[in-house]
Structures
1.
Amino acid sequence: MLVPMSWLRDCVDAVKSENLPAFMDRITQTGTKVEGLTLPGEEITGVVTGRVLSVEKHPDADKLLITKIDIGEKTIQIITGATNLTVGAYVPVALDGAKLAEGKRIKKGKLRGLDSEGMLCDIGELGRTRYDYPEAPENGIYIFQEPQPLGADVRPLLQLTDEVIDFEIMSNRPDCNSIIGVAREAAAAYGQTFTPPEISLKETAGGDAAEMISVEIKNPALCPRYIARVVKNVKVGPSPLWLRHRLTACGLRPINNIVDITNYVMLEYGQPMHAFDIDNIAEGRIIVRNAAAGEKFTTLDGVERTLDETMLVIADPQKAVAAAGVMGGENSMVTGNASAVLFESATFNGPNIRFTSRKLGLRTDASARYEKGLDPNLALDAVNRAMQLIEELECGEVVPGIAEAYPEPRLPFKVGYNPASVSALIGADISAGEMVNILSRIGIETENEGGETRAVVPTRRRDISREADIAEEVARFYGYGNIPSRETQTVAAPGGRSEKQRFADKIHSAMVALGYCEALTYPFESPKVFDRLALAQDDPLRNAIRIQNPLGEDFSVMRTVTLNGLLESLALNFNRKNEYARLYELAYAYIPKSLPLTELPEERFTLTFAEYDKKGTDFFDIKGGLEELLWALGLDGSRVKFEASARYPYMHPGRAADIFICEKGGRNPKLVGYAGEIHPAVCHNYQLGERAYAGVLDLECLFTFSAGVKRVFKPLPKFPSIQRDIALRVKTEITAAQVEAAIKEKGSQLLAGIKLFDVYQGVQVEEGYKSMAYSLSFRSPDRTLTEADIDKPMKNILENLSKKLDAALRGLQ
Amino acid sequence: MEINFETLRGDVERALAEAMDIPSLEALRVRMLGKKGEITQLLKTLGTLAPDERRVFGQKVNDFRRVFEQGITEAREFLQFKQQSQAIEKETIDVTLPGRRRAIGRRHPIASVQDKLTDLFIGLGFTVAEGPHIESEYYNFEALNTPADHPSRDEQDTLYITDRIVLRTQTSPVQVRTMESMKPPIRIVAPGKVFRADEIDATHTPVFHQIEGLVIDKGITLGDLKGIQELAARHLFGENTKIRFRPSYFPFTEPSAEVDVTCHACGGNVPPEGCRVCKDSGWVELWGCGMVHPRVLEMSGIDPKVYSGYAFGMGIDRITSSLFGITDPRNYFENDMNFLAN
């Protein structure tokens, strides 16, 4: 909320003498935060008052004039194209080097051969508009209405020096959305109590508003209070400069005295007000009712709107005259011809106004205030203040009396509190007396009855309903800075991460050690991703959760596959000519149990990694990395199985594998994920011009395996091993896994390791076959083996290879 | 037998000194100790001598042999050393040539700050809790004292899945889930992603990260909250950081506070041309906190007459930006290797 300091200083004595930074700091520390400070004339320098001494035609230009301007210490020549200058006029003069609004800079120079030592300013060049200064000409130099001292800074003369503070007002404090609200906080911050100015009225019109107007509220839940006052002999015209300046400083546009007064009071009291032409209120009857479904109504801005039955209107017996709390109707607006004006000061239900405003797509200064919920007891003071201004500005005669409906007057409520427990909650030693003092500064009186302490909370403070709220008020003005900090707190139990969180940490460490950088991607993405990943139209992964109000199509579905984000990131790196990218992410896939969602979906914890390298990388780099990762999780090669898989449409059908984890001894393999090369067509979809590799692991599943691993150290071998190398001639289609299985089957207890060290296919091996060279090691836990010991297992192995796989030792066939 | 050992020794020493490489040294060794070597020959004559003479002469020959062998060993070591030195000299490389990198990965900057904060709180006895991203309206709002018509609902730019299910706008629902499943004393932190309908720009991303903290016990005070927040801020920004604890408002805490620290850009001394980072205030708003609202305790089945507690919610992205001087949060989600490995 914008607050001109001049206005606040008029309200609060303590602020008057305080320097600005100190004030801003102080009020911020009591909870009314200064968001920003603007000095309206800040950007304008070097503009002084001058008096026109002469105006002559430029000899070489029809549209230019030569002026001599007295700026006090000297007289300067300025060439201008302005047409509204007369000798003797007082004008703003921008001197050489001056800065004007919007960063415009003035330098002396020549115009058609003649020196011009500055520029005469129009109101726009001083950062103001004709709304603020109606006396300014539409096209032409601003001319001061009265003589001015010469050579003086124009800013104070044009009221361009008033600092305006932007306060952040919390949503629980609608009462602070006003000058007096902020004034109350400011006074309290300085240990004072704010007293609102007294209002006295002359009420010269005669008659009684209550007899002229009747008010009926059909739905008190949506309109707790409605007050109408009447002003006769209205003279519509411009408001005085001071009032216009205050409105402008607060971001409002001055319009005419009647509208300006309602706006001024809205700023000052926080109470929106509306003025009706009384002649357009049929029978003088105000009826506050719900709109009929489909009721048409044209608002002040000339737009016809269709209302529904949840919306509240102000009506007369024949028609609606205003959308309550949002905007008045065209049919009852005040024009220059109005003989009498009805001023409405009413209270409406906040949420209802918010919904109406949202449905109509119409947010006004009034609705913005009503939305937050106003105090019905504000309405009378505010309307009386408006009447006072009407009288002071002589724009009408106030009719005595008020027309009002206030079915259930809201009374101050009492909140019991125990000073000792307030003090305990804050953790500072604050006496009951000090609490009473603090509270009374913000209008909360304390009463003691039967040993109970109760705060009497004014109705404007609906945010205060229990002891904790009282504690906050006390703490705010006691000073958060004065509360002693306590760092040593008793710890009841050791903290830490859960097993699963530690498991995730292990994965992070392993991935980082393997050279992957951790990435972050958005969990929502475009439904087009499914096409980019080449998913079939009926692929269940297309059943994604949709966001009702997404930030556009690109962020509209919750991902069911985690791969897309990293593929996009790879493409970004590729486009930025990065030589390689190796990324991983621990993220979630969101799998609905049914659509539309009736219960929370499964959030599947997933490890995703993806990479490309212009220097080349292949499936086995990825696989090796994965094996290292799984090993770090306690899952050695005996428990991990890779099986060729062509079932992922986005993976290369011949270069991808399903990954299984088995129970000890290789039983019950369970699918935990997949890895391999990204399908070249999919790379193309992502405009990724390099072979890319990726893998996805289900971490929930992996965790159950990893959690079951008990890490036990086996004693280091005491006896040396014996090695045998064999080169096998194997049919091309036989996999390494098959060969290994056949070796293991007959390897006996002594077989300690199998290592494939060469695979060869080419001229040395006949067509349809390949050569696979293995190094087998044998070891006994209790003795040194001799060559003879392994003759038998070797023989068995070779027989088995021959029988099962038609594999023979090379050179023997 | 008369042998002049002095002369022999002189000869041998000269020969040793003249042997410039291992082969000539070996030749010398064979000359003296080979089957027909001079020393071997002398030893062979021992059998022909009378016992007395044999003892004296044998002694002399053996002494000479020992001296010779030692000379050979020393000369060999010297020559080997010389040979090795020459070879090593030829192996000299330019150590300023670029190394062959074995690229190690990095944690994401946000994750590293998240971990740093989490570790701080673990050290203070906190347990790490988690909650779902797709959350019921009840946990995200209602149980946090933010009913449907609450004005702060508008400020929160919630992304809705259905009318009752939302993408969590804050990590605070984990507070409620924890209080429902645990009995006090409670000390948890809950880091994680949160979602808002904020358009992506230079200061906003629709996904960001928070770390939620919750402590419930008997006798917890605003002073405890203040102490722990100051501790966290100093831990992050250094011992000399000035910290301001200022009243604020959140529906689920009462009293509420905001933690500010001195601006990292201008250090709290706003220069005449102004400071963009702190908007000339000298302070940067870090995170919100407060005493858990008694209504929230009640809704979670905890008696506010017996227990009190505090909660805080730190925006990790913003803290990370402050710490690392990152000016555009969009960088966090692009995953450019140059950024991540930075």
Note: Chain B is about 40% helix and 20% strand.
2.
Amino acid sequence: MKTFKTTWRNIRRSPYQAFAAVLVMTLTFLFISFFTFLLFGSAKAISYFESRPQVTAFFRNEVKQADIDNLKNELNATGKVASLKFVSKQDALKIYREQNKNDPLLLELVTADILPASLEISAVKIENLSEINNQLLNSPLVSEVVFQKDVVSVLTSWTNALRTIGLGLIIVLSLVSVFIMVIIIGVKISQKKEDIGIMKLIGAGDWYIRTPFIFEGIYYGVIGAILGWIISAGALWYATPFLSSFLKGMPIFPIPLIFFFGLLGAEIITAVILGTLSSFLAVLRYLK
Amino acid sequence: MIRLDKVSKQFRTGVFALSDISFEVEKGEFVFLVGPTGSGKTTIFRLLTREALPTTGEVVVDNWDVVKLPNNKISHLRKKIGVVFQDLKLLMDRTIFENIILPLEVSGIDSIIATKIVEEIMKKVGILPHKDKFPIQLSGGELQRAAIARALTLEPDILLADEPTGNLDSATAMEIVKLLSEINKKGTTVIMATHNEDAVKALSKRVISLNNGILTGGNEKKPKPHLEHSEKKSAIIDVKDKKSEDEDF
């Protein structure tokens, strides 16, 4: 309890240094939060696109239902197919009519006979799409294959790049905040050098002197993490209506509360680690 | 209780602060350490608290070999010795109460008990009304009393007072000396470094005199009770002799 009081007094008596330390930590955790939201969103988007039919095979007119069933069985046997949906000529007409219900001229011209039956396929993994595509192209039953590999693979490569760059930036920002905290706590130790000397002379052990500085580092980290989380979560909450309409159809919003509180917990743990590390480094460096 | 055996301390500049000093102080004794500025009085205190190490020789405090004391035991040694520093070393951003309670906090004593102890000591040294004031708000004598109170909170076996009457008027100085004498009567070994001849005369205690880092008198052990009067006398004479030798004292 006394250590907490001493820590609080140290913070209160040098508010600008405390503000600088909290600001640096807030910035780091703000970035971590936004980056986590982005990763969460992109992971959801990828799984959305993955769950959508990614390959559509259009059959020749003369193909029999038994041959289509055989092809379905062959595809299922590969274990690379997540789902298969057969769309008959009648189903295709329904879809066409629904899509063009406002244009009677287009509806008049089209009958079920001229629309091909098709098979909509989703892969277990995006990497399997090419293989499925090749298998379909080699089949004599199939007249055309529409392959949406590009959308998903571009999204995947963007997400991977984002993850790498983001992780790199998080590491750099964390290092920067640790070094700035080492400097700030080091300055505070230097300012209190005389007091520390007096305390040592009246019998204070090393840890009696070190502990308040270590708590101070943890305090800055935790406050920074909470502020960073509040700002990012608030910004996301504010932008949710716009983002939901922009990303219409993708089941990203609303983001579950458990995710937000899980992120807060993880950030507080990270803050404690960063705060302890930086104050410990400062104490070792300046309190020899 | 305290033993210095052939202790020398040489600074990096090559100057000897102490040369071949040997003396003993018995438990419960009151000893004056006298000598001009730069004679090595403070250096002896610094050696006793392991603030500095001797270049050669042995320093023993309460059976602890101070020179060989491992670093992690230094704080234990310092809790056994109460020190009234020449420059007081009070923390200026803490109240008098907070300054005095510090050694108890450092020792992990419960705050309720610590508060009680501090209030008793403050009452004893006569500064209880100033408990919530900051050092800057107190007079020299009051600050000196605060420093003494802080040195006494852990009930140390040894009290080292470095020039406790240095900047005080003679009346206040005598009050401080009286206070130290009362503390000594309760069993605490007191070593008081001073320039104050009146204080030395008033108490008639053993005097260890130093000049230029060399012991010039008082290295004999505590006198036996029946010899006390004559020994005290000789000690004062020694001081007087010292004065005639050195104008600075």
Note: Chain A has two domains: 2-49+153-286, 53-147.
